[in-house]
Structures are given as C-alpha cells and as structure tokens.
Amino acid sequence: MSARVPARLSRRGALLLLGAAIVGGCERSGPQPAGNQAARAADGRPVTATRPALPLRDWVTGPQVDEAEREAPALRIVSAAPNVTEICCALGLRERLVGRTRYCDYPPGIEQVPAIGALIDVNVEHLLELRPDLILVSGTSRAQTERLAATGLRFESVPDATLADIFAAVRRIGELTGRIRTAERLCAGMEADLRAVSDHFAGTAPARVLLLLGPLSDPPRPPYAAGPGSFYDDLLRRAGHRNVVADAAAAFAMLSLEFIVQADPDVILELAPDDRSRPGGEADALQVWGKLGPLRAVTARRVHVLVGSEHFVAGPRIALTYAALCRAIADEGHD
C-alpha cells in the first residue's frame, strides 16, 4: 500500500518537511506501557478511571534563568519560527527579541515584537533596519538559508523534526546566546515533564494510532499524517503506542484513503490549531470519518480532535502535546 508523495507543506510552528512514499506497517516498536488491557463498555470503548490533574510547567511564560547568565551578551535576536521564539522566551531572552515571523503568536504579548513576515516573503529592508546580531532559523530549508545569506546577516539553523531535535535546538540556542546553564536547566525540566506524563498514563492499553496534521476534509481526501522521524511518532513510541504509518519513508506524508481503510487504526487523532475546522468538535469528526466505512476507531468512537496551536510547535511546551495525545488515546475527557 502506498501514499501519494507531496512536494512540501508550508510550516506553522516547527512543521516541517513533508514528503516521500509510505508503506502501511503495524509492527510495534518502543516499550510496552505497564498495566493490563483496559476494560471496554458495551459500545467497545475503553473504560478508564479518571486520573488526577497532571500539573505541567509552561516554560515559555515562566523561564528559570541561571543567575550567573543573566548578564549574558545583549544580542539583538530575530526569530524566524514559532518554536525558536518559544525557546528564546523559555531561556529568558524575551527582551532580546527584536523581530519575529507573523506566525509567532506565543507567549502572550509577543505580538509587540515587530514582524518580518515569514522567510518565504520576508521584508528584507525591514529585517536590515532591525540590525539583528543573530537570526535563528528552524529546519534546513535551502530556500530560507539562501535568502538570508544574501542579506549578509549572521544566521544559525536549529533542528526541529524529532523529539531529540527539540532538546538539541534548546542547547544550541543556549550556546549561541550565553545561556548554556539555563538551557540545561530547561532541558532537565522538559524531560521531567515528559517522564511525569509517561508515569501518569502508564496503565493505558497500547493502541494503533493514526495522527493527522489536520482534520479530514469533507468529502474525504488524502490527508497528511505523522510518520517516523517526526516528534509525534517519538511521542507515540514513548507512550508505548504504535503508529500505523510506522514504515513511512518520511516524517510527514500524504496517505491514500485506501491505506487508512486497510490500516484500520484503533484511534484516530486530528490536530487543529483552533475550533474553526471542526466547529462541532468530535461529533463532526466522527461524521466525516464514517464516510470511509466501518473503521474500528469510528465504531468505538475513538476519533479525537486535539485543538491548540501549541500542538504544531516543536518547542518547550512539548509535554503539553504529549499529555494531550496520551489523554485522548486513554479516552479521558471524551464523550
């Protein structure tokens, strides 16, 4: 079974290169979660006990700067991606940002920082007027780097695809800005949050999951899904679940509807930046997915919509996305 190959999908947040062919695989990888299989109600849905609230820190709005690094060089920084903006703020560099892209909309108040457009349509004259000491870019787009190279300004790229890349990006930006200890503190805090989520949902029965980068259209058309090499796949593996597109040749790929029907996932997760694409929530999602046939996720009402722009950003709030994925797969908080 194969999927159509996209050229490139424009990125919101740290997303991302999409591409290549995909073969449907269901082999499990990663550790099994502890605990027994969840009990199921008459309609086939898992019956799970409601767990206590899971407190997670928002490192972007509550940075913990090492005291010895507060007087680090006062660089003028332009962030060219939402994940970079959030990392800078989590390192206590909010006041050093003199420019951002129009997609950088977090933390609250960041809109006061001048926008340079996006790198594909950057206002070069405005960028030069900002006199940045450093431009931070996310990913490895040749078009982006060639455009910046032509300005003569200093720029550095940080990785943004995998879960490990998020930590590497934090450490690299810490090195570039004199916040090395602060970056290590941030990485330790992020890792502790991820472990807390894993422990919190350790009893969840393993599931075969399809995770889409947007809601399925109506009428259904081939959607984009997260495959291996993406931080979403890393999060699913970390939680002990299976990605039904585990044999994909790329981190993000367009799936054929035929592949989805054959893969028949236990759980379908749709990511949405806001409520506009699914105004009726999961009821809308179930209605659209039902047009593909009697998928087990539809029959068991395990089609969930995760709303929030944070779920598209490979940055310091990654534990919030991890918790949302785990909560949805465990069927907590869903009718």
Sum this structure up briefly:
The protein has 335 residues and is an alpha/beta fold. The protein has helices at 82-90, 124-129, 142-149, 163-177, 180-200, 231-238, 257-263, 282-289, 296-299, 318-329, and strands at residues 22-23, 39-40, 46-47, 77-79, 97-99, 134-138, 155-158, 208-212, 224-226, 242-243, 247-248, 252-254, 267-272, 303-307. The chain folds into two domains: 22-51 and 205-329, 3-Layer(aba) Sandwich (Rossmann fold), CATH 3.40.50.1980; 67-197, 3-Layer(aba) Sandwich (Rossmann fold).
Can you put this structure into words, describing what you see?
Helix 3 links the parallel strand 6 and strand 7 (155-158). The strands form five sheets. A four-stranded parallel β-sheet has the order 5-4-6-7, sandwiched between helices. The protein folds into two domains: 22-51 and 205-329, 3-Layer(aba) Sandwich (Rossmann fold); 67-197, Rossmann fold, CATH 3.40.50. It has helices at residues 82-90, 124-129, 142-149, 163-177, 180-200, 231-238, 257-263, 282-289, 296-299, 318-329, and strands at residues 22-23, 39-40, 46-47, 77-79, 97-99, 134-138, 155-158, 208-212, 224-226, 242-243, 247-248, 252-254, 267-272, 303-307. The model is unreliable at 1-49 (pLDDT under 50). With 335 residues, it is an alpha/beta fold. The longest helix is centred in the middle third of the chain and has 21 residues, at 180-200.
